[in-house]
Amino acid sequence: MTRPARIGMIVPSSNTCLEPQTGRILEGREDVTVHSTRIEVTRIALDAGANTQFDQRTMVDAARLLRTAEVDVVAWNGTAGSWLGPDHDREMVRQITDATGVPATTSTLAYLDAFERFGLERVGLVTPYTGDVNRAVVAAWAREGIEVVAERHLGLHVNEEFARVAPGELVPLSLEVAAADGVQALVYLCTNLYGAPVVEEVEAAASLPVLDSVAVTLWRCLDMVGAPLLDERWGSLLALTRRRSPAAR
């Protein structure tokens, strides 16, 4: 009997969104299962103390635990690489695969793969973060050829609080960002933010694709293991028929 594909996810310890939201997106599918391990993450900021939460050795140790479950892919399901710089995550992925033999990705690299796959170069950004974190994201993405045309942030830094933001609170901010000239898609950046529940509503109101971090990370994992992708209500782009996957970045 062929077993389901197994997705291993490294989860920030204070994240209360991504696991339940991933389950809702999968809706009882039997072709794939998701297995998580946690690392300590409590605060999002740009100081050295906050950044050490994302030490690559910590990620490798977490990936080794997931490897014992015979997972087919490992994802660091956090967006820190978007302000630390994607090269941080590229090196992390390399180290994880070298140590475990398992293909790997991250939320940040999944976004870059989505931008490339769907030809996106100018996006709008909505996050729960503080302004300085958003500015660091804008600068890091610019180095990858992605222009953030407009952004909004909620000014929060305690990770556990991000998931307390009601999805409906994101809609007005989203429509403001989507109205900026040149925006090709709207991005909810944070795997502890409930953006996915309003993707369908915002796409209809703004006539733009919307990409949510939880959905994008899951999409890339499904893509990497060759499983069917997502229902279009979780993001119209993420439901498109699979094309050849770009190599893990």
From TrEMBL:
Gene3D superfamilies in the record: 3.40.50.12500
Give the top-rank taxon of the lineage listed in the UniProt record for this protein. Bacteria
- InterPro entries named in the record: Iso_Racemase_Enz_sf, MaiA/AMDase
Q: Pfam family example for this protein?
A: Amdase
Q: Which PANTHER family match?
A: BLR3294 PROTEIN (PTHR40267:SF1)
| Protein known as | Aspartate/glutamate racemase family protein
Q: Which species is this UniProt entry from?
A: Isoptericola hypogeus
| Phylogenetic classification of the source organism | Bacteria, Bacillati, Actinomycetota, Actinomycetes, Micrococcales
